[in-house]
Design goal:
By secondary structure, the protein is of the alpha+beta class. It is built from two helices and three strands, in the order ααβββ. 18% of the residues are buried. Strand 1 and strand 2 form a beta hairpin. The radius of gyration is 31 Å and the shape is rod-shaped. The N and C termini lie far apart (98 Å). The chain has a three-stranded antiparallel beta sheet, covered by helices on one side.
Length: 151
């Protein structure tokens, strides 16, 4: 059906060598680079937070296990080497299960008197990866305490 006024809208003719040809490719490259930087930074932050949570939970679980070890009330607070070894092994097992052997971790287990109570202390130290644009390693230390249960 023809229009009443007889005019027809037509698209303006663009020559193939117009000034805007290729601008979509340039816009895509610029925005994709910015989005890539934002995405990799977000993934690095999420990974770093996950590793911190895993290290903290491993230290807490190891301290709790060390506190429940069989200790007679006649033993002194500092003389329980088997509980220290068990706590370090538990922390190492927990870390290897959740994140593998990818981090350089140091596990220290000890007992100490804190406010008159014998407590188990587990300290995990690890070098966590940094952000993509800042690849410096960050040192993270998780310390957990638990009161020893004498039997």
């Amino acid at each position: 059906m023809a229009r009443i006024d007889g005019s027809r809208k037509s698209k303006p003719f663009r020559s193939p060598d117009s000034a805007e040809n290729g601008s979509a490719v340039v816009d895509f490259v610029l925005t994709s680079f910015a989005l890539l930087v934002i995405f990799t930074s977000a993934m690095a932050i999420i990974t770093n937070l996950y590793l911190r949570t895993v290290l903290t939970n491993a230290a807490t679980d190891a301290a709790r296990l060390m506190a429940r070890a069989d200790i007679s009330s006649t033993q002194s607070c500092e003389s329980n080497d088997s509980a220290k070894l068990a706590a370090a092994a538990a922390a190492r097992t927990s870390l290897s299960t959740l994140i593998g052997n990818k981090l350089d971790t140091t596990i220290e287990a000890a007992t100490q008197k804190l406010d008159g109570l014998c407590t188990a202390v587990v300290r995990l130290t690890a070098n966590l990866p940094g952000l993509p644009l800042m690849p410096n390693l960050t040192k993270f230390e998780a310390t957990a305490h638990a009161t020893l249960e004498f039997q």
